[in-house]
């Protein structure tokens, strides 16, 4: 699988009207995210990029902030997979502000939609993933040995007049991961494979600080360095917009090179063909990973998503040769 790019971090949006796209664009402008025009995702453009970049499959995710829109999005994602079973997979979104609804949607996605895994936001409508109310959801996903993709909340307001997707999302990710470590979420649900977006955001670079200070007397409900190591080493991270030494090296030190999977961030309004290609090229050439390790990163997602791997195998898709 070393020649495949299996992209775990790719976004989609359901079909929308021009008026809806303009409203979404204006909402971004109001948050200081100055995209030049409304964003529209299309499967045709996505498949063209995948062919050009040697991407065999994208695991698609989209997490709207209301339950009706989230369910409609999951339905559309499942339809995309049905139409392109060897090119797309679905990471079904879960509404983690409502544990009962989240469990119900996870069951529907698994049983009726054939989802390959699940996607959650670090903070969904104000509720962080470490919230104790989510234990029933994690229990169900643990029973299934599920893979869960964790994406930061890109809807945050600007910080110091800088748009949240630039760097605030990295701190949002670290905040959430560390809270889950203190609450021992990763230790209590060891059968869930958590994949953290963007090389883990800021959490790998700050893990040393947590190991040093996390169990000091002034820290409520402290966490030992050993517990930090055991929990963080169980996590996976992706390479979306972070396939460069300043991000990869802390991730390698924290989770290990064998826990890095390929991600492009394709389909996000902030990702262009140029930025996606620069990131992809850097994965292979920046030197943070050996050529062998970089090759393993490209196809490692198939180990985490057996349903997707079986669909690709059934289609007999050849390895995509890449530079």
UniProtKB/TrEMBL annotation:
Metal-binding is among the record's keywords: yes
Keywords recorded for this protein, A-Z: Lyase, Metal-binding, Zinc
Record's keyword annotation contains Transport? no
**Annotated Amidohydrolase-related domain residues:** 6-266
Q: Which GO terms describe its molecular function?
A: 6-methylsalicylate decarboxylase activity; hydrolase activity; metal ion binding
A Gene Ontology biological process noted in the UniProt record is: secondary metabolic process
For this entry, the protein name equals: 6-methylsalicylate decarboxylase
